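Hello,

Our lab assistant flagged a job as stuck in the queue for most of the afternoon. It eventually completed. Since we weren't sure the result was trustworthy after the delay, we are filing this so someone can double-check. Below is the sequence as submitted and the structure that was eventually returned. Let us know if re-running is recommended.
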Amino acid sequence: MQNELTKLFGLDLPLFAFTTSPEVCVAVSRAGGMGVLGAIPYTADELARHLDYIDRNIGGKQYGVDVVMPQKYVGTDEGVQYSKADFDAMIPEKHRKFIEGVLARYGVPPLAPGQKPRAELLSWVHDLTRKQVEVALSHPISLLANALGPPPADVVEHAHNKNIKVAALAGSVRHAKKQVEAGVDIIVAQGTEAGGHTGEIATMVLVPEVVEAVHPVPVLAAGGIGSGRQMAAALALGAAGAWTGSIWLTTTENQLTPSVVKKKLVAATSRDTVRSRAMTGKPARQLRTAWTDAWDAADSPGTLPLPLQFLATADAVTRIHVHAEAGQAGARELLGSAVGQIVGRMNQVRPTAEIVAEIAGELRQTLRALPRE
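-- returned structure --
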């Protein structure tokens, strides 16, 4: 099908796929959609290597990059730019003891000598994300997306000067209007069903509200979309396409999702997610596990604001993943992943191109079956 976005980006299908896997990004774009690489897990140098890989393998197809430039985190209210050491010093001892207590309760041992947690701050703060933006804009991307809050005006201007469109996620009409005021070209209206950071309004309610509020700016529907029928519903709500994420976690090409996580996702139902602050300090939909339950329990000290929660739990999350992959039962109970309610449809590991083709075929079939006047 063709519309304003497929024509703009040269797509066969207005299907945008957020993924942290460069292999999945390539596969989606080559299959007719548009891969959007999530930069959050990577340093600037790592991101550059992944984008080099994409450029070599994408066959001239268009792709995008998604960064995280949160509007608020510790220090922004005071206008202070803290270092990682400063942030580390802010983590209360009671939180450190609580985390160690949870790990001990489930028998999760320390990392073996030579194994190190992912200790970098990554891109939860603007000075680090700006390095990612510079890397992204030095590659032939077609879209720069921001996942948390309106992107800074200079970033929007820099992208536009390179003829790169800017997208941003919004969980409410108020947020969507802020994005448009910031110069964003495409709004991603993300319902609460979505994985990762998300608001409280359901996709079915949110999308038409945002479409009406920001017209004629195009809107992508996000949250709970993983089939052609769901994509057809998004189009019927006024969206110009769909923004997807969770369904690519269990693809054959996704080497970043460990096999033990894929097994847990494949076994999960749509009722097995929770919107929790355990991951970053901001509400994010993820698998409900013993880890998320522990942070919601009566003896929990409560989560910390961004980026302190991420830093406080970085060692623990690494230990959980390493030992879960090795078969340790307690670690597997704690093991989680950001994922949306669409996880109930993710019941097997499949090639990316097969999923794209299935969505496209079901979309065409659904649209043909709709009654016409």
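-- support follow-up --
The delay was a queue issue, not a problem with the job. The result is valid. The radius of gyration is 20 Å. The first strand starts at residue 15 and ends at 19.
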